[in-house]
Amino acid sequence: MIYNLQILRAVASYLVFLTHFGLYIGPVLPRPDLFAFGASGVDVFFVLSGFIMFVSTSGRRESPGEFLLRRASRVVPVYWLVTLALALIALTGLKPIGIVEIRPDYVVQSLLFMPFSRGGFVEPLNSVGWTLNYEMFFYVVFAALLMVPRPAFRALGAAAIFLALILLGLLPASNLYWAYYTKPILIEFAAGIGLGYAYLRLRAPAAGFPVRRVACAAVAAALLLILGGQIVTDALGVSPELSGFARPLIWGSAAVLIVGAMLLLEQGGIALKSRWLLSQGNASYSFYLVHNLLLHSAAKVAALVVAPGFARAALIFAIAFPAAVAAGELLFRYVETPVIAALRRRLDRRPSPDPLPVPAAS
After folding, report:
1. CB-CB contact of 32 with 237 (8 Å)
2. Whose CB among 37, 96, 212, 343 lies 3.0–4.6 Å from 73's, allowing a Cys bridge?
3. How far is C-alpha 213 from the geometric centre of its chain's CA atoms?
4. Residues 6 or more apart from 132 whose CB is under 8 A from it?
5. Which candidate, 285, 317, 259, 349, places its Cα nearest to that of 80?
6. How far, in Å, CA of 78 to CA of 81, rounded?
7. Rounded distance between C-alpha atoms, residue 71 and residue 150, angstroms
8. CA–CA dist 223, 86 (Å, integer)
9. How do residues 319-352 score in pLDDT, each as one tens digit?
10. Are 70 and 344 contacting, i.e. CB atoms less than 8 angstroms apart?
11. What is the mean pLDDT of residues 191-217?
12. Under 8 Å CB-to-CB from 24, ≥6 apart: which residues?
């Protein structure tokens, strides 16, 4: 386990929470979308995903089918559980987190990670699931790349595929899928793979290398990128939640710098071993899936006891954040972990070749 990356997962999920909390505190802020920068946590997740998939499969002889089954066992069970729970809640008429209409095709497409338009937005019933649609698409592409044996060619292949998709996106969109799977944000997966290749090739820094200073400089540069993007969008009067090519250029670059800094620290023997954040990193996926629902529920409760204003927003945070943390931990311990373990045991019973040693990067 790379401790720094696990802790970074917790921080990234908190950033996304902050963005969605911005919907409730926005009316009392100088600018309603002041917390939009927290959406950059998604970019961190995408870069992390590219890195982890590349590094975890290097030196292993795993077929595309085996890879996809393992990823599905990790991602699908909790996502399906939360999605079906939201659908059942919606059927009672409570309309959780913006689900104003529930239809069978919405449920099916959400469960199958298929993008579709709902209420003017292309998102599944669990709105944060749009990122998982991209994750699953990335897994399919990466599974095909597993047939390329050399790490360097695998990394180059990923860059070529995602760059080609982005360039194709410049053409007029013929349908929703074309427009969805040619977004510039896809290149962030390839950036993570590039970090993975560098990680395997470079190994530990040489003695005397200023690990702390370089890592701090990288994080500072990332924060300046995010802050600069916020300032520019504010000056232009546009939404600071970046889109198009601006998103991977600014937030994607910042994510690469932050992930790279965490890797450099770990390779230099500096691990951020916070028990709390490490635990939260483990449960970050479950936290991510349920935090919006708990924010919405907290807002309903707060509206009954506090007048609109800063006090209500503070109460929403005070209820929703610890509730999301607790729900994420419970889901991780009692649903995510045992279900994944059971599925993995079934997969591991199948005969497979001996794992190869991690090859030198080439």
Report:
1. no
2. 343
3. 27
4. 75, 79, 113, 124
5. 285
6. 5
7. 22
8. 35
9. 999 999 999 999 999 999 999 899 888 877 754 4
10. yes
11. 92
12. 295, 299, 312, 313, 316, 317
Q: How far apart are CA 57 and CA 359, in angstroms?
A: 11
In this prediction, residue 111 carries a pLDDT of: 97
Per-residue pLDDT of 198-208, as tens digits, reads 999 987 888 88
pTM of the predicted protein model: 0.93
- Residue ranges of alpha helices (H) inside the chain are 3-25, 40-57, 64-91, 104-111, 130-145, 151-168, 176-180, 187-202, 211-236, 246, 253-267, 275-282, 284-305, 310-331, 337-348
Nearest-angstrom CA–CA distance, 111 and 80 = 6
Burial tier of 231 (Cβ tally within 10 Å: 0-12, 13-18, 19+): exposed
In the three-class reduction of DSSP (H, G, I as helix; E, B as strand; rest coil), residue 122 is classed as strand
Dihedral of the alpha carbons of 286, 291, 294, 295, in degrees to the nearest 10: 180
CA proximity to 18, closest of 219, 241, 183: 241
pLDDT at position 179 is: 92
